[in-house]
Amino acid sequence: MSELRKKFFTAPLLKIIKRVLPPISETEREAMEAGEVWWDAELLSGKPHWDQLLGMGPPALNEEEQAFLEGPVEELCRMINDWQISYVDRNIPEHVWDFLRKNRFFGIIIPKKYGGLGFSPTAHAEIVTKITTRSTCVGVTVMVPNSLGPGELLLAHGTQEQKDYYLPRLADGTDIPCFALTSPEAGSDAASMIDRGVVCYGEYQGEKVLGMRVNWHKRYITLGPIATVLGLAFKLYDPDHILGDEEELGITVALVPTDTPGVSIGQRHLPALQAFQNGPNWGKDVFMPMDWIIGGEENVGKGWEMLMSALAAGRGISLPSLSTGGAKMAARMTGAYARVREQFNVPVGRFEGVQRRLAEIASIAFVLDSAHKTTTRALDEGRKPAVITAIMKANATCGLRQAIIDAMDIHAGKAIMDGPLNYLGNVYRAIPVAITVEGANLLTRSLMIFGQGAIRCHPYILQEMLAAENPDHEAGLDELDKLLPKHMWFQFKTLCRGIFHGWTVGLFASSPRNVGHAAKYYRQLNRYSAVLSLVTEFSLMTLGGELKRKELISSRLGDVLSQLYLLSCTLKRFHDDGNPKDDLPLLEFSMRDGLHKIEVNLLEVFQNFPRPFIGQVMHFLTMPWGHSVHTASDRQAKACAELLLTPSATRDRLTSGVFLGTPGDGVDIVEQAFDRVCASERAREKLKKGGIRNLSRDNVEEGLKKNLISDEEAEILYDAADAVEKAIQVDHFEHLGGCAGTVQ
């Protein structure tokens, strides 16, 4: 029976698979093999096992990590003057550099035995998050050496000799690292770089040694202008066959001291007027010994694999930390400003149009913080979930962009007049940098998240593709013959589950125990996990390799997978916090918003599917009733906005980790005004009952004369009026005199 099946079914199917499914290039293979699958595979299975996610527990810091966050990190934030750094000096002052070195901020991930802090990914993320709420420039400067740089590559791939020499120097800031990957000819497509090295013999320290002569041109290199050691990616060739028969050896990564003859460090870029050090560099006929390759000669040609492995973890920490911090800062400060700023004698936060925006900002902060915590918790366990960290990078930076735009809309002129009092403008300018680096979001969304995720997370597709490419035809046929019955059974279960949950709109989907009010949302995520799994099967079966080129279809399905992950993390965070009733408005708004986005993307997939009939079939099978989840109601939006407008444990929990300023700076002034306005609410109501609606010193005095308020209440109102007056001020400068002076 097996031989008949193989001859009349599997063999013809193998020909179809070879014709339909795309061939996997070596670069793609290495990218897909980097890292691992995790909760993303559960979401694409059609039946996620929630115990796996909820059983992880919340992330936590140990005593040493917590002390560092409350001590050196807090002290660093107090030292920073972001306006001075970003617009006056365009550089971090020397005393801040010294503090960073002294306290091992560049060695957060380096083990203690090498002189580093040896902190967990969660601690690393919390440190970066807090710093970036104070200064993007300093946050990036701390972030880069601890993520996607020589330190991480050395830890994972370096020789013991390289670790012993470089890691202590990186930990204490003796060496400042950068990583040179991007070149003018190759941005996101690093495999097409033309930076080239040739294996040869040369002279090093007076001796003839085997090495490489390398030429390169790199740009956009963060910390490049001040780096002392350069992590360099280039393609290595061996035309004289010194190392073996192969001439093209592939992408290789080496550590190059920047004072090496032939290395040129260029002048600075100014990325979106951000002050962190960034610039180009060149190398002309630079000779480097083979032991400068990270990991030594045995890692020749393994550079792309090494980089993808580093990205698999690093993308989940660096820019998501910056984005989460920015969104939380936007939520806290926008809520505070909307409470103290009045128009028509009403706080602007009480206008319905503003409330909707406030709710959206709060939701973004809640979802990003939830996903950030869950992702770093997975990294704490040693996981390297490549697809999930790509989801985090793309969605966190886009989420920050929306949160800051909404925050600026609410702040109005306060947010667009630059100066020390403006805490939003510089973050707004930095967002395009975050969106375009570490894999541009357009590329990540359209090619990576679903394009790689669907294949990597599918239990059989990747194995079938590899079987089809097996040069041993019989071995490939045997492997495929073993996989096909399993795949067909998976397809049958997926079809039944997708249709059932689609037609019953998830009413009979399961949910974990003891999740209370959130149970209905677990059921909806189970429903759409089943639908996505079924749509994925249809897409792979009908489009095959064409799906790779249908970027709009792929990106929409990637958005569905992204929302499933973000919403899963939101439910986990709510569960970890003990299902607090006061947080329900945040949960309701966030879940409805995300589920609505899932439905919109799926309906657009059906509408635009390249095979129109298949699109109609998928629509009929999985979403016959169209939209079944509506976005949050106005009532829910108002309840969510009130969480930012009123002091509460929920507000503090949502915005934990935000640096609240130093006395007299923009953040502190608004925070003080918020506290005083909220404290004066009862006295203010007495003035309103007496017909005095506007808060000013003159009106408080009038209320005192009319005996509407007591002397004690008058003092509270005077303080509130003075604080509000300061909070609504913006900076102004001498005419044509640059930014040397400021009047408040």
Which features does this protein show?
744 residues, alpha+beta, 7-stranded mixed sheet, two-stranded antiparallel sheet, 30 helices, flat
Detailed description of the structure:
- By secondary structure, this protein is an alpha+beta fold.
- Helix content is 58%, strand content 9%.
- The protein has 30 helices and nine strands.
- The strands form two sheets. Strands 1, 2, 3, 4, 5, 6 and 7 form a seven-stranded mixed β-sheet that branches.
- α8 packs antiparallel against α9 (136-143), α12 (303-314) crosses α15 and α22 (551-576) packs antiparallel against α23.
- The chain is flat.
- Residues 740-744 have low confidence and may be disordered.
Report the span from N to C terminus: 87 Å
What is the β-strand count?
9
Largest sheet report: 7 strands, mixed
Multimeric organization: single chain
Residue fraction in strands: 5-15%
Structural class: alpha+beta
Cα Rg? 28 Å
Mean pLDDT score, rounded?
A: 90
Layout of secondary structure:
Blueprint: H1 2-20, H2 26-33, H3 39-43, H4 50-54, H5 63-79, H6 82-89, H7 94-102, H8 121-132, H9 136-143, H10 150-157, H11 160-171, E1 177-180, E2 196-204, E3 207-222, E4 229-237, E5 248-257, E6 263-265, E7 278-289, H12 303-314, H13 318-340, E8 342-343, E9 346-347, H14 352-380, H15 386-411, H16 413-416, H17 425-436, H18 441-457, H19 461-469, H20 473-503, H21 519-543, H22 551-576, H23 584-608, H24 612-622, H25 634-645, H26 649-654, H27 666-679, H28 681-689, H29 697-705, H30 711-727
Parallel strand pairs: 1-4, 2-4
Antiparallel strand pairs: 2-3, 3-7, 4-5, 6-7, 8-9
